[in-house]
Amino acid sequence: MKKMKNIKYILVLLTIVFTSVSCEVDDLATDLNLTEASVPNITKLPLPIAQSISRASIAAGNVTFGVKVDRGLGEIKSLDLIGFYTYGPTNARVTTAPVVLKSGITTFPVNFEFNQNDLITAFPYLTSIISFVNGDVLTVTANITMNDGRVIKMMNDDGSNNYGAEFNGSVLFKVKQTYSVVN
């Protein structure tokens, strides 16, 4: 019976020790540098607008693709539509620095259409229609200017995502669209 009392006292003592040395800061958010922001909703324009960039259409001079830009979540003062172009062999992909496709967008929703000449003008890598290679990818996203003047980039300058994984599969909004170059 004495052993049972000792176990009981040991358990009480351990409980006191563990609760006294637990987290000093109960509010985990105080250690995180979180910011409230907004997200865009960028969707592809429906057919007959292209859903990918066809090399045959480029050669014929009649490729047109586009996006619809809207507010996804939060307040947006203005938005710049940004493009990244990824090219090269699979084992050595290169993503261009971001280029501004349209700037100062303040009216939502709004549609934008582009053609191969717009891309050749925007991206220094693309010098002519033969620069478009099967497997290349155009990514269209946004930089958002908030009402307080902060600029929120949806993608980093190297083309990597600047947002959490929960936005990738969102059914409420899309923060980027991709257009693959196909034959």
Written overview of the protein:
- This protein has 183 residues and is α+β, with helices and mostly antiparallel strands.
- It is built from 3 helices and 10 strands.
- The chain has helices at 2-20, 55-60, 116-122; strands spanning 39-44, 53-54, 64-73, 78-87, 94-95, 99-105, 110-115, 137-145, 151-153, 177-182.
- The strands form 2 sheets. Strands 2, 4, 5, 6, 8, 9 and 10 form a 7-stranded mixed sheet that branches.
- The radius of gyration is 25 Å and the shape is elongated.
- The N and C termini lie far apart (84 Å).
- The model has no long low-confidence stretch (mean pLDDT 86).
Low-pLDDT ranges: none
Annotation field: number of helices? 3
Q: In angstroms, what is the radius of gyration?
A: 25 Å
**Helix and strand sequence:** HEEHEEEEEHEEE
Largest sheet: 7 strands, mixed
Structural class given helices, strands, pairing? alpha+beta
- Termini distance? 84 Å
Secondary structure: helix percent: 10-25%
| Amount of beta strand | 25-35%
> What is the approximate shape?
elongated
Number of strands: 10
Task: Output mean pLDDT.
Answer: 86
